[in-house]
Specification:
Elements (H helix, E strand, L loop, with lengths): L17 H16 L6 E2 L8 E2 L9 E9 L3 H8 L5 H14 L4 E11 L4 H18 L2 E9 L9 E12 L14 E6 L8 H11 L6 E2 L2 E2 H5 L7 H10 L4 E4 L4 H5 L8 E6 L7 H10 L3 H7 L4 E7 L4 H10 L4 E9 L4 E4 L4
Parallel strand pairs: 4-5, 11-14
Antiparallel strand pairs: 1-2, 3-6, 4-6, 7-12, 7-13, 8-9, 10-12, 11-13
Amino acid sequence: MTSGNKRGLSYRDAGVDIKRGEQLVERVKPSAAKTHRTGVIGSLGGFGGLFDIRAAGFRDPILVSSTDGVGTKLLLAIEMQRHDTIGIDVVAMCVNDVLAQGAEPLLFLDYFATGVLSVETAATVVAGIARGCSACGAALLGGETAEMPGMYPPGHYDLAGFCVGAVEREDLIDGSRVQIGDSLLGLASDGIHANGYSLVRAILKHSGASLDESFEGSSLGEWLMRPTRLYVRSVLDARKAGEIRAIAHVTGGGLIGNVPRVLPAGLAASIDLDRWTLPPIFARLQDAGTVAAEEMLRTFNCGIGMVLIVPRGDVDAVSRSLIQSGENVFELGEVAQGERGVQLGGSLR
């Protein structure tokens, strides 16, 4: 107890303003409501998000889940005060992962943590999350906003996401049907996506490049902030056109690290680097940092954001469907016998 007129400490005195959190919830409710889909029960604000998977039309579903963040791309977003697309990144990093098992993303939750909550910044981030969810058919079912004084420098925040998808048991993609001679179809990326930004920042510092400098009709910073491409709708549609035996989401580790993850033992991915041209943003980074080709391929997607492994007889139909959905498709090579890994030919330019 306190005596006289002396007031005791409050949570607000400690740096946490509950009212700001309440204001944020009210700000983001309209954005979340736009992501509503069949299967959602209730609305934003409960202790847990509810979803009826039978109502979503599944008979014998396997649940597929993924959680991820956007790494140090956040530091560029904060430096540039560009918070409108980073939410798309965190959605894409998760939903593209569940897509790799053939799953349709059903629901998404976000985690936003900061030292002192800026309702405007957080609402802008969540609006981007909602746009990402809407684009791939996932419901923004809830999230957590954590205000933690002393944990982050002023103006900084952290962001993570969690996605649950579902696929009928008979339609699960696990790479077990991959065979020698299957084709590797690469889907073009929209840029760096959300991996390798520690190297990006090191290159910028090493070369003295400015985020404001003119590059390819825009600025270098704008190119670096392009959000991760969402492949969900185009790939799910392509499954109806032909068989897809494996899917690799090209994230940290690049083509060299991610494609082998979906190959059975005794099979390798033979990739011809001459089948596509390294996009200008990657060439700019490689030149500015004098980065070796293998290091580029182990760190960045280098212009290929997703790889599908397709039987030779289905290549035309699957490719046609993907192109109709707006994807740029490259036939990268084929599956060959050998130690599980990537066999590279050609040159990265």
